[in-house]
Amino acid sequence: MTGRVVGVQDKGRERGAVIVMRQDVTSASDGAAIATLTTTCFARDSGGCGSGGEPAVAPHAVPAREPDQRVRYPVRPDAALLYRLTGDRNPLHADPEAARGAGFTQPILHGLCTFGMTSRAVLERIAGWQPDRVASHEARFTAPVYPGDTLEVALWQDGSTVSFQASVPDRGVTVLANGKVVLR
Fold it and tell me: 7 has which bridge partners?
């Protein structure tokens, strides 16, 4: 895997910066392309640095109509602790003091776990549990999910494009927005 920063969008000294990174995954045996991963990170205290590289990409707009389907998944109270077994040991997922220090009221669920739950919704409800049908999966994180929350994923299907949005209805907050899956 090789990676690089491909863009920085400066939101201003008091507003932070968005850093866009791209990783290319290739086969160790023959160098064939396997996947390209694009990751966007928000650096809350790093505004005023100047913008550069690739321009910002407009987020995918979900349809204005009611979703075609909704699915709810309860998040286990110990989900963040279990998800640490994947190797992400960031203390804001387990230590209340570290979470408060990062501006959260309590430890939060890993973003990758939330993202995975939206993948599950698409696989379960639209792709017939066939992961090879998923060509790409993207979304924008907008708020944290807490262990014990119930995640609701709204799905819209338009041909090979599945739009989605995830929320926590009990808190009235959207946690993933502008979701888009392209199916093969």
Answer: 20, 53
88 has catalytic annotation: yes
Burial of 103 (0-12, 13-18, 19+ CB in 10 A): exposed
The single residue of 24, 88, 95, 170 carrying the catalytic annotation is 88
137 as an active site residue: the answer is no
Which domains are assigned to the chain?
2-53 (no CATH), 69-183 (3.10.129.10)
The pair of structure tokens assigned to 136 is 């790409």
* Bridge partners of residue 57, in order along the sequence: none
**Rounded to an integer, what distance in angstroms lies between the CA atom of residue 116 and that of residue 93?**
16
The closest of 5, 83, 92 to 49, measured between CA atoms, is 5
SS (H, E, C) 80-123: HHHHHHHCCCCHHHCCHHHHHHCCCCCCCCCHHHHHHHHHHHHH
Token duo for residue 173: 């907050």
pLDDT in tens, 42-74: 887 788 888 888 888 889 999 999 999 999 999
Phi (first) and psi of residue 82, to 5 degrees: -65, -40
**Segment 98-150, tens digit of pLDDT:** 999 988 999 999 999 999 999 999 999 999 999 999 999 999 999 999 999 99
